[in-house]
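Sorry to interrupt, but I need a hand with the structure work. Go ahead and set the record down below:
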Amino acid sequence: MNPRDNPFAPGAGTQPPELAGRSGIEADAGVAIARSKKGLGKSMLLLGLRGVGKTVLLNKLADVAETEGCVPVVLEAPEDQSLAAMLVPPLRTALFKLSKSDKAAELAKRGIGVLRSFAGAFKIKIGEVEFGMKPEVGTADSGDLGYDLPALLEAVALAARADGRAVVLFIDEVQYLSTEDLSALIVSVHKLGQKALPFLLIGAGLPQLAGLAGDAKSYAERLFDYPEVGPLPAVAARDALVAPLKREKIGIEEKALEHIIKQTRGYPFFIQEWGYQVWNAAPASPITVADAKLAAKAALERLDAGFFKVRVDRLTPRERDYMNAMADLGPGPHRSGDIAAALKKKVTGVAPLREGLIRKGMIYSPKHGETAFTVPMFDEFLKRTSRD
């Protein structure tokens, strides 16, 4: 079949042709976004492994916020940038947009002054572009993020409220925020919520995020909803594969479909990769099980060279040894003591390795004393690739 017509879209955060199996989360988030305009929405943190489509879902919800007339602010948290530095550019854009509204103009201009004070306190520059407003002296300029961030977001939310809108902050990879940044963000959600201001946070991160939020502030458990974004159930996995093919008037044999679902285990990113490869492998409709088996080889080669390899390349030799020991024990989760025993070390001796791998987002702890991969099928990748 013509690869130019291939509907499948494997990629980091790329919107799939069929967003299947997430209607429940979409509906709940849609309600929270709509209620946020009255200051009643409950913030949420989406939790899930790599490859389950958290980024795709976050981007979809940002579109929902835009449709609802809210002001979406979308960020991705890298490991080496502060939350303050990430927030200033998009908040500046949002405030300038609000300043064009007659109803919100004065409060938006004040918000720009507050933002300038905040940027000055944290020594943040935005190229050579000036704000065009004087700093709002005495507001959000102490240099203490836990004190200044709520004041800044309050100024933005007040401008949005004047225009009948809400600010919805979307942050991907929240687990990479520093403890200070995460704590300040949680405090901000709490304080703005107490004042019933039109502000909502929808974040996404690896499963350890719930624990990190709780460690940062004990009341975080009550402040957020924590929807789990997992692999798709069989019906949704079928929809993710079949619906795009139907739109292109392409059939697929039942055995071929079953083979792909079994291989991908319902993980959305893998479904897109297998779908992309089986389209290119099939000479014509319907797609056969032989096509599916041929596609599996190509899909694994692409995953090994990209999705998996980029994560291995971040590891030190000792971290790689730790991950190999986990892989030898199977998919997991595994007791920390068993991993240490496989390395012929004491648990205390490998604890720093474990903590470092958690910080890098390679592993997480489903329960106390347990360790699991954050990347599905990573154990299989390590077993089939060289360990030199």
